[in-house]
Specification:
With 372 residues, the protein is α/β, with parallel strands linked by helices. Helices cover 49% and strands 15% of the residues. The protein contains five helices and eleven strands. It has an eight-stranded mixed beta sheet, with no helix packed on it. It has a three-stranded antiparallel beta sheet with strand order 7-8-9, with no helix packed on it. A hairpin with an 8-residue loop joins β7 and β8. The protein is elongated.
Length: 372
């Protein structure tokens, strides 16, 4: 139906509806533009389109698990990304060339003593790069910042380790990169292969140990069976020992009465009593004999003392009188030596304890030479 054929009321409502549709379209378009702007801004922030990019490179032994676009970590944060992973030419000292960029202000943590560590990202063999920040304090030696940015928007100077100085950074030269040494442990697959190889090498020893354990268990079972047999055989012995111990508990069944009956015990008591009486009598007799022997020894001691004095006087007189016959003088000397020898005899020595033997300080007497 043509618009001019519509009534004024319908024409007014249609204009109002067209106005609403136009506003909706304009709002949707505006929202789409805003969403596109936000998307581009987040993408630019994530990709680092409008931030400073500090280029670095390193060398690895293997490029397994390292891909272009992977994030580069710094202190646990996503600080950059890998830009190239290339194999080195044959015969080169290094195997894999890896270049990466550090975005924004993160390059301020990378100093001349920084290193790149290759870490595992899971059990599937993925790996990632983590840059270890340098020691800017200088406690472990003089270090230098890898790049210098004066305005924070671009790189102005790069540190030259060879010249030990900074040089202008060529912004149009894509090969202008700073080298960061890498610490690369063996990849997870290589470690698993080594573990499997070690397991294979240890498997024969494990099997031998298992066989030995099986043999030990069999011997243990055999020993247990034999021990059970011995215990079964020992049950009667244990029962008999129990009966014997029960008898030993009673006075009439003690071990002493078993070994020595009552009548024998009585006879032994009487015999011991008689023996004790006999020993007392013998002791009394020995005491009396000892007293009598002491009296005899005392009397003999007195007699010997008197005899010694007599012979001593005679010898003194003989020494002074040279006219006495030689045989009488020799007889007196020999008699005196005899008496002195008796006083030194072991049997009569105790009788002369209180008297010092004459001539004890003199030289020993010569043996007696009795003449007939």
């Amino acid at each position: 139906m043509p618009i001019q054929d519509l009534t004024p009321q319908l024409r007014t409502r249609l204009n109002r509806f067209e106005r609403i549709v136009g506003i909706f379209i304009m709002a949707a378009t505006l929202m789409m533009v805003i969403g596109l702007f936000l998307y581009l801004r987040e993408t630019a922030k994530r990709k680092g389109w409008f931030v400073l990019k500090a280029p670095y490179y390193t060398y690895l032994r293997s490029g397994s698990g390292i891909q272009v676009g992977d994030k580069v970590k710094l202190m646990g944060f996503d600080a950059g990304e890998i830009t190239a992973v290339t194999a080195m030419p044959p015969g080169n000292e290094y195997d894999v060339y890896v270049s990466f960029v550090v975005l924004g202000e993160y390059h301020g943590y990378v100093w001349s003593d920084s290193v790149v560590k290759v870490k595992s990202a899971g059990l599937l063999g993925n790996r990632y790069l983590e840059v270890i920040k340098g020691d800017a304090s200088g406690k472990h030696g003089k270090v230098y910042a890898t790049y210098v940015s004066k305005d924070g928007k671009g790189i102005d100077e790069m540190w030259d380790p060879t010249a030990k100085s900074y040089k202008p950074f060529p912004k149009n030269d894509k090969k202008a990169q700073y080298y960061v040494p890498a610490e690369e442990p063996p990849e997870l697959a290589s470690q698993m292969d080594a573990i499997v190889q070690q397991a294979k090498d240890a498997l024969p020893h494990v099997l031998a140990l298992t066989n030995l354990l099986t043999r030990v268990m069999a011997n243990t079972a055999d020993a247990t069976d034999r021990l059970n047999g011995l215990l079964s055989d020992a049950k009667p012995i244990v029962a008999n020992l129990t009966i014997i111990s029960d008898h030993l508990k009673h006075p009439q069944g003690s071990l002493g009465e078993w070994l020595i009956p009552t009548n024998v015990n009585r006879q032994l008591s009487e015999t011991l009593t008689n023996a004790n009486t006999t020993l007392l009598s013998a002791n009394s007799t020995l005491t009396n004999a000892n007293l009598q022997l002491t009296e005899v020894a005392t009397s003999l001691d007195e007699a010997l003392d008197n005899l010694a004095k007599i012979t001593g006087n005679l010898r003194a007189q003989v020494d002074q009188n040279t006219n006495i016959v030689k045989e009488v003088s020799q007889l007196i000397v020999d008699t005196d030596n005899l008496v002195q020898g008796l006083k030194r005899h072991w049997l009569l020595r105790s009788a002369f304890k209180g008297e010092k033997t004459p001539g004890s300080n003199q030289a020993p007497l010569r043996p007696m030479n009795l003449r007939r």
